[in-house]
Amino acid sequence: MLSARDLQQIELKTQEIGRMIFARIADQKPAIFRESWWSGRVMDWSMRSEQFKVEMFRFVDVLPCLRSSAEVARHLQEYLCRSQGDFPGFFQWGLRNLPSASLPAKVIARLMESNVRKLARRFIVGSNAAEAALSLKKNWKKGITFTADLLGEATVSEKEAEAYQQRYADLLRYTALKVQNWPLPAECPSCLSWKKAFESGESRVNVSVKLSALYSQFDPIDFNGSLEGVLKRLHPILKVAHETGAFINLDMEQYEWKDLALAIFRRIEEEGSSREKRCYGIAIQSYLKESERDVGELLAWAEKFQRPFAIRLVKGAYWDYELISSRQQGWPSPVWEHKRETDACFERLTRLLLSRYPLVRTAIGSHNVRSIAHATATAEFLGVPKEGFELQMLYGMAEPIKKTLVEMGYLVRDYTPIGELIPGMGYLVRRLLENTSNESFLRQRFVEHLDVEKLLQSPLPSGSRQSHDRVAL
Amino acid sequence: MTRVDLLDMLLPPFLHKESLAMRELKPFQNEPMTDFSKPLNQNLMREAIDVVRSRFGREYLVDIGGRKIATGRWIDSLNPSLPSEKIGRVAVAGTGEAQQAVAAASRAFESWREVPPSERAEFLLRAAEMVRKRRFELAALIVLEAGKQWREADADVAEAIDFLEYYAREMLRLAEPRRMGNAPGEVNLYFYEPRGVAVVISPWNFPLAIAAGMTSAALVTGNTVVFKPAEQTSVMGAYLTEIYRESGIPKEAFHYLPGIGEEVGAYLVEHPSVDVIVFTGSKEVGLQIIEKAAMTRPGQKNIKRVVAEMGGKNAIIVDSDADLDEAVLGTVRSAFGYQGQKCSACSRAIVLEDCYNIFVERLVEAVKSLTVGPADDPKTVVGPLIDESALRKVRSYIGLAEQEGTVLLKDHRPAELEKSGGYYAGPTIVAEVKPDSRLAQEEIFGPVLSVIQAKNFAEALEIAVSTEYALTGGLFSRSPAHIEEAQKRFRVGNLYINRPITGALVERQPFGGFKMSGVGSKAGGPDYLLQFMEPRTVTENTMRRGFAPQA
């Protein structure tokens, strides 16, 4: 159990590392805020006007499925040119009074489409594995590895589930082939840590799987049926992973499906007990009130089996959805109400998980310098080597932070979605919302320019009950 | 002397305001659905199903004022998933019993109407609490007697609780007499009074919710009730009666009269001492009731008021810019939830030609993947139809489908279900259906979905409102202008945008339609109780000898 004095030490180290990171970042800005032309203005206005943001992001969401420029122009007009919106003339492009099928309108529409496509490209690494490979390799040479994820439509039928199964298998085979020869440049500080990691058995190929994509009747009301339904499609994927030496991470989606996902994870770990290598991991969302209990149970189970596995610790990407859904249903909210509670839980879980190295390999999934600094400070305090844990971020976000961490020798991995534009829009809109939200760390730092001291503050005052670890380490 | 005291002196006792219940009652909130992702709830449901099974085979008698009557004739209530299982047998009331019930209800009216509204509301709140306590048991009975899936059955029970809680509060609100105008020297009071004897004819598809809704509305407004539940779910009718008895409602105010619609229902509708008829069911029966009720008969004092909710041929429009994930899932849910046996169910999907092919392809595959099976299995998404005659009717429409369109999926279900003898009709999807064909106009009340193509949005709207019904409708679109247009021109009682079109919640989505979908106002809404009451105005000249109290 970490004592109060230990926690103080970690806090001091956190502040130190945090300040160092900020100093190194200096004036660099993430590309999404740097955009001089269109995207920059979209982001800018989205942060100034809630109404504009709603209309703009809804427009972006529907754009890829529109089949003609006239349709694009019409939707642009409906979303951004309606009388009640007080939107900048810039975005209306004089469209307000043009017939949507006219030539000027179509030209504007095409321009808009290409802008949105560019914006999407920022966050989606390619529409298929081959396209993605180029960008992934570029990243690799900068010392950033990947965990690839497939974007797609919701799986509404067994036919679609089968298609997904195939896509995952293909992705594994393709990337495994490509990645073998990718070099890690010697002059990159984190590459030394990566080399050590690979030598000790960590995989070069890492793929994240969405379980709900693998079974169309996925429903916790039919717990066993859903478990078996997913496993039927997951087993062949795991077989390919095993053949290619790839690592499989299970994504965590809605709260409703969490217990099913954890059960599936335990099952595949138990089934793979003959293997010594670390093969599987699962994501844990710190915005869930149940996560500490879940991790405690997972660790207790892991101690019994002594099977190495990985956990990707994230804060959680569906907060609004969980809050709204639970309120509509009249159920207690499964997520913390305040962001600082999520952040505090994240730090408690960071300490808990890192203390279990090497049984558990932890990936810290956050763009928040405070959370990252705290994780590195904790690792240092607990004696976890740099190659023993990872810092994961989303492709296309927080570039200056990633660069700095690589320079400091930490392992950095990008979560890289691969997929077509239409299904990718949901992902894009969520990223835009994230970056423009008031609570976004990136916004607070790079747009609002909140000062370093405030940004590095502990999520909860140190005297409070929650700042102490509840689960025994 | 204050104004209030003076009014108190002048007003009859039953108009006293400020009931205790009204002051302490929390505002209405919908009863949460059961979270079936929790193993605890899954176990409770399984146990409840076992418990209800253990009661199979019991007898349920006619109940007039608390007096149980066996009539010598019986209806068997069977489990639609497995008809060899008999839920129980229910005594069939004949015209003799009906006559007794109406007479008793008539006599009881004089005292029931005098019970203060706050007390009547209190009975409803007590009944709600009892339903809450027996939630899983009642849901289990719905699963076994009506063939509903777990979640749908649970929602039925939650809705019943909602009606009871909501109408109790509504009555408290409406019980306050209103002071009209503000002329000095004159007091004009506007208030409501019950009508008399209410006959409630409830359907099998929401055997608890709609039965509770209609009966509680009649009771809380001061009417006495003769309750005639659907034959297929008469055991649930008996359970509801038991709950009312336990809640303390005077026995003579409520009578349970299970029986055959054509026989005892027709008798009740024509009876001169019946003042209100509340009905939910098919258009054909509804229109017959309206016709019969319109005739005044010797000895009849009041012109009968009929509230009838009758049916729909509801359409979902899928716009070319719709989110297809949501549109497909929403249409599947709306069309095949409870096997399409809801008046709110989607039976037509009107799809814009731009996304027609891809939508239909995904739709068919999605429906093929649904689990068809017995209602008591949590895995089941599509259960059985209610009875043999429903199965025959749906089968004949499936036959018609082959003539009127291109059948893309026909009666899709696993072969092994045959041996259960359950009333299974698997999902059927028909494309290239013409908007004026029988398949696109007549209510089928089963898992048969017609898909119609539209060239543009205007055409889609036209097709959507081209049936004789106007109950529910839906639109999946991401065009703000189309959404606005639909609000204006997609004229149905309950229009849903970018979500499924079933599952209306009390207070949040007051439910009901017009044209041939019904007469009378929306259940679970602020006008519903008014239908059960007569407004009265009392004007008093308060000036005596040139002096009037300060108003």
Mean pLDDT of chain B, rounded to whole units?
A: 94
Number of helices of chain B: 17
Range of helix content of chain A: 40-55%
Q: State which percent range the strand residues of chain B make up.
A: 15-25%
Largest sheet of chain A: 8 strands, parallel, barrel
What's the shape of chain A? globular
Structural class of chain A: alpha/beta
Q: What does this molecule look like?
A:
The complex is a heterodimer of chains A (473) and B (551). Chain A contains 20 helices and eight strands. Chain A has helices at residues 4-25, 31-34, 38-48, 50-62, 69-80, 89-92, 103-123, 129-141, 158-179, 189-199, 223-244, 258-271, 291-305, 319-329, 339-354, 369-382, 399-407, 421-436, 441-446, 452-455; strands at 144-150, 206-209, 247-250, 280-285, 309-314, 360-365, 389-394, 412-418. Chain A has an eight-stranded parallel β-barrel, surrounded by eight helices. In chain A, strand 6 (360-365), helix 16 (369-382) and strand 7 form a beta-alpha-beta unit. With 551 residues, chain B is of the alpha/beta class. Chain B is built from 17 helices and 23 strands. In chain B, the strands form five sheets. An eight-stranded mixed β-sheet of chain B has the order 3-2-10-9-8-11-12-22, sandwiched between helices. In chain B, strands 15-16-17-14-13-19-20 form a seven-stranded mixed β-sheet, with helices on both faces. In chain B, strands 1-5-4 form a three-stranded mixed β-sheet. In chain B, helix 5 packs antiparallel against helix 7 (150-174), helix 6 (135-146) packs across helix 7 (150-174) and helix 7 (150-174) runs parallel beside helix 8. Chain B starts with a helix and ends in a 10-residue tail after the last strand. Chains A and B meet through helix 4, helix 5 and helix 9 of A and helix 12 and helix 13 of B.
